[in-house]
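Notes from the 1:1 (GR / supervisor)

We went over the backlog. Supervisor wanted to see one worked example end to end before approving the batch request, so GR pasted a single chain during the call. The sequence is below; no edits were made to it. Supervisor asked that the structure be written out right there so they could see what the output format looks like.
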Amino acid sequence: MTITITAFEAALDKGRGLARDMRVRWALEEVGQPYAVRYVAWEEFKEEAHLARNPFAQIPTYEEGDLTLFESGAIVLHIAERFPGLLPQDAAARARAIMWMFAALSTVEPPIIDRDVVKYAERGKIWQGERLAMTDARIRGRLRQLSARLGESEWLDGAFSAADIIMAHLLSRLEGSGLLEERANLAAYVARAEARPAYQRAFAAQKAAWEANT
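Structure output shown during the call:
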């Protein structure tokens, strides 16, 4: 059965690979699964057809036969469980990889997304500077903790896994901010992840789609 994912017709990141469908593309590339992409225009997000796939009017979604999923973390976990290569065989190592997926989405990502909200949605507000400083302080705290745990390891826990897809992708939102660069091992971690052939294929596909739709 053909796997179909949804993505922005014209993503706001302008082909930088930051939209969350990138995580799903990357996971599918890692496990060698072909997929089709349904591009959704902004005016279609709250239409019934898309709300049937995601009631929160977001991307990405995943469809395979009768199965429809939303939430990038859930989709990447499904791919990792459905196809070999992104989760360890050992039960304890597998549990730790899934733990790291939750940590990435629930603990590390929220202040990073808050930073984007402050930078763009609150631009020009009198409190923006103070809010940005507070958000950056929260991010620095999380990066300090993550950096200490990663140390000199290549990946989060043993071999590359679905957890590294989620973690490296969300950290990439900080590239160029100076925050990621303060932690050399985290910057190197993201660079290693982005050098993987599967990431490069996913990035090229997402960028080509943005260029074709803008």
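Supervisor's comment: The mean pLDDT is 92.
Batch request approved.
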